[in-house]
Design a protein that fits this description.
DNA-binding; alpha/beta; 12 strands; homodimer
Chain lengths: 337, 337
DNA sequence: TTGTATGCGTTATCAG
DNA sequence: CTGATAACGCATACAA
């Protein structure tokens, strides 16, 4: 096992200097830094989080409470976080948080006691519980919210602009000449649902396009519900030429229904989704959608967490990260009647 | 923060004695033990796992190295493992293992040094590297293999019977009167690919059914490749009435292609997949497939790990867990010509 | 800009 | 059966 002392020896410097390099201290000569970094590489040195945690009197762990085990969102977020953690010499304590168990506080306390993490990342729906916020504050643990419903005073949050993204996606469709655009929305109890729908309507309004009542159907973010919704939409006398589904899973359902009805995508019907999930690439044609910047979110989360909680009056910022519209093959010019 | 020293002071004994009590050592007087336990309770003492790990150079962590971040397999496995860990007072150290970085040994050593786990769970493709096995053995870390290519001497493994499952799935199809059954296989470098194909052929052989060369296409486990394969299959003069895809993703592609060609599933074409992944439930009709027993696998893995490595001659068992055929809606009686 | 000495909370050694 | 003291690997006053 190679320790910091070995590296110091190899580089011909003291352990403290090596420590400085690792924690990228300010005042250090470039030459020394390079020497140390070379030594670390040669020896294949990896700092031990345990030892480090010991004298920093806080575990290097970052806790993350997730609720929905089946969501690809979580898997991708974890992956991004994991990669960041390696670079930051930290580790992830992932915890399944049973949403159905009403005693959220109890679950959270048990988790804290067990893992001793003092940094937490909260995703929906846990990120919206003020009881949880209070608990964490009283126990002095830092936390950042990912895509919370609303910004919480005194808590940092990271999100993307769902509404803007949806508007852009819709404008994209409009740019292709579409005028009859329908929307399949998500679960009514989810903020993103509202935001995405608003973005859609905003784009339509700006373009002077009308959205008939019948052009908005609820899909609850689920494949099965969306299939029913798409069926209704595509059976309308004035059939839409494009459908914006509030997530990829529902967009996939839409494509499938279109196929069943003998409609070609994108020639007869353009479809866009949201999330850039696995579905977006495993559907044919591949889906035009919007990607959340998981890597950036993970990095931002770690950065936000790094700044110590300090005084309660601490500046708590809400970061709005840039999303990305992914153009693939599910959109084409509106068919001429 | 209350430390072992505080407890020692309160109980009027030495720190070592407290340590002994915590690790329930043999030779200790009942009276002393009670004194110490009382002190621990009064002070609300909780041992710091970090300090312990530092000294013992081993943590309560279970390491798991995963390669493919996009696989739903990993997410489901992690979830199952996580739930088991909570009950067992252990924790999971999930690590992304860059398959493309050729220095597997280096990566693994760094991980071991950093986390000090001495229990490891290996999934494909890492589970098949004998270099890795040697490393772990030399460092005295326990490991269990999940679905390895072949059983490794001196290593415990957990798997399901891919061949049997495939045979049953195929027999299921045959039971519905299908005779012209085609197969879309996986990546040629993956064992499961071979096993699943063998199971398929075995069932056909037993039923006295022939499998023309043209009825086997390679899909590489990927949606896009499978779509091409399905297209070929469904364009054959003697079109198959059923297709067994070696995983759900490819089965989903098959259904999509069928739809595009105006074929109804399952009326005109029956389709089965493998894995019971997200795709199985988000395809229409829902897929008949085989489910891996993730919960049982996780439990078995922890059990196997619990038994100490002890002597090298230790019994290393290979557990073959029961899979489950999930009957959904993608299979129907063969159409009459 | 860099090095020396000390401590973090726990377990292990080896003596009593 | 029990206790003083040295590790474990790293960070940080304090000094140079």
């Amino acid at each position: 096992m190679v320790t910091i002392t070995d590296v110091a020896g190899q580089a011909g410097v003291s352990v403290k200097t090596v420590s400085r390099v690792m924690n990228n201290y300010e005042h250090i000569s470039v030459k020394t830094r390079q020497k140390v970094e070379a030594a670390m590489r040669e020896l294949g040195y990896a700092p031990k989080s345990m030892a480090r945690a010991l004298n920093m009197s806080s575990s290097a762990g970052i806790g993350i409470l997730y609720g929905d085990p089946s969501s690809g969102y979580q898997a991708r977020l974890n992956h991004a976080l994991l990669k960041q953690c390696v670079g930051a010499e930290r580790f992830l304590s992932v915890e399944y948080f049973d949403e159905k168990n009403p005693d959220w506080i109890g679950q959270a306390e048990a988790f804290l006691d067990r893992t001793k993490v003092d940094d937490l990342i909260l995703v929906p729906p846990m990120c919206d519980s003020s009881e949880l916020h209070d608990l964490f504050r009283s126990r002095q643990v830092n936390f950042v919210l990912l895509s919370p419903s609303s910004s919480i005073a005194g808590a940092s949050a990271i999100t993307i602009d769902d509404r803007l993204a949806s508007r852009q996606l819709t404008e994209n469709l409009i740019g292709f000449g579409h005028q009859r655009i329908a929307h399949i929305s998500g679960r009514p109890d989810h903020v993103a649902t509202l935001l995405r729908r608003q973005g859609f309507e905003e784009a339509m309004l700006r373009a002077g396009l009308v959205v008939p009542q019948t052009y908005i159907e609820e899909g609850r973010f689920r494949f099965a519900n969306a299939a029913i919704a798409a069926n209704k939409l595509l059976s309308l006398p004035e059939r839409p030429t494009a459908i914006f589904a509030a997530n990829d899973e529902m967009a996939a359902a839409t494509i499938m229904v279109a196929n069943q009805k003998g409609l070609r995508v994108p020639e007869d019907l353009s479809v866009v989704g949201f999330d850039d999930s696995l579905f977006a690439q495993t559907t044919w044609p591949a889906l035009t959608t919007v990607a959340q910047p998981f890597e950036a979110m993970a990095k931002a989360a770690l950065d936000l967490l790094r700044s110590p909680i300090g005084n309660v009056e601490t500046k708590s910022q809400t970061l709005i990260l840039e999303h990305q519209i992914i153009d693939r093959d599910s959109v084409a010019h509106a068919p001429v009647d």
